[in-house]
Amino acid sequence: MPNVPWAPPTPDAPVQEGARWRYHKPSSEQVAAWFATVPLDDGMLHEQFVGGLVLIPQNEKVRYTRPDGGQMERYEQIYTPYVQIGTRVGYARRLAEHRDLIYHTEPARVPRTTNPASTYFNGNLPEGLWWHVVANDEGRVYRYLCATTRVGLYSPQTYAAKLRGEPVMPMLGGEGTKQVSGSPDQNMIARAQTGAIGRALGVAGILVVGTGIATAEDMWEVTGGPVAMAAGATLPPSEIAAGAPPEVLDEAEALDQLRSRALALQTQMQELGSETWRTFAAWYQERAKEGNWQQLDDVPFEDLKTVVSKLENDLAATPA
């Protein structure tokens, strides 16, 4: 008999595993039924926030033992619920109202470096933004933009004291920092600030379900992004030497920057929750099939530029 490669059967329907589903995308009714079982704070109603749930598609590498005792690996599709940051903010505000508290968010105080010649210069950035500067084994320097934000629920008396400049503690609070690549990106400040708010709310325990404290971009950075964009691969952060002009970057660095740009744009597009993302994902899947791209690292440089251009144009054409 011929040696037929063995593979475990794939179910025809999504299989729930705790707060995620394997193999197939669950229906909105299945997600709503799961969310209805998630404990919320007293007075908070599930139906008011279920609309803020989105599903993050990923690929997970799974190892199986064959009947002959050998090992085989395959990628399996996973869907994890994620609460959009706007929904977390709305939840925090409603929770504050229910408890007769005041919701407040503010950038954390970070050191200000006003010397333009310094690698750490952030004198022209909004409060709460700073540069994380690291060096590799060869001494080459890389910069990452960071935002640090605090959120809190205060009693009216405590909040009044806070406005007077008195040191006070919130009834419920958290602080979060989000780091993004330091490569040129017109959305990098917004990405850092939005991610920091989401992290701070997660640290405060505000609507920590599905992906938990992690933001959507965190999940994609760790797992390699949506299944159509990166089949289980880990996307490296874009690395750019401080002050290095784009024209001196080698091909590998340019590829890293394009991958980082693609990740940032797809994060922005997914957050919109619009038909734009679904249309783009279908377009990408067709191109991936034609080019035999299994993951984002497989996409050639010129094709990757086309992908980024498509993301930019589709976003620009999406109504605000």
Overview of this protein structure:
With 320 residues, this protein is an alpha+beta fold. It has three domains: 1-83, no CATH class; 84-206, no CATH class; 246-320, no CATH class. Helices cover 34% and strands 22% of the residues. It contains eight helices and eight strands. The protein has helices at residues 28-35, 85-98, 156-163, 188-203, 216-223, 251-272, 275-291, 301-316; strands at 15-17, 20-22, 53-65, 71-83, 102-107, 129-135, 141-154, 172-181. Strand 6 and strand 7 (141-154) form a beta hairpin. Helix 2 crosses helix 4 (188-203). The longest helix has 22 residues, at 251-272. The protein is globular and about 70 Å long.
Give descriptors for this structure:
320 residues, alpha+beta, four-stranded antiparallel sheet, 22% strand, globular
Number of helices: 8
Strand-pairing-aware structural class: alpha+beta
The run of helices and strands is EEHEEHEEEHEHHHHH
The outline comes out as globular
- The number of strands is 8
Number of domains: 3
Summarize the structure.
By secondary structure, this protein is α+β, with helices and mostly antiparallel strands. It is built from eight helices and eight strands, in the order E-E-H-E-E-H-E-E-E-H-E-H-H-H-H-H. The protein has three domains: 1-83, no CATH class; 84-206, no CATH class; 246-320, no CATH class.
Secondary structure elements and pairings:
Elements: E1 15-17, E2 20-22, H1 28-35, E3 53-65, E4 71-83, H2 85-98, E5 102-107, E6 129-135, E7 141-154, H3 156-163, E8 172-181, H4 188-203, H5 216-223, H6 251-272, H7 275-291, H8 301-316
Helix pairs in contact: 2-4, 5-6, 6-8
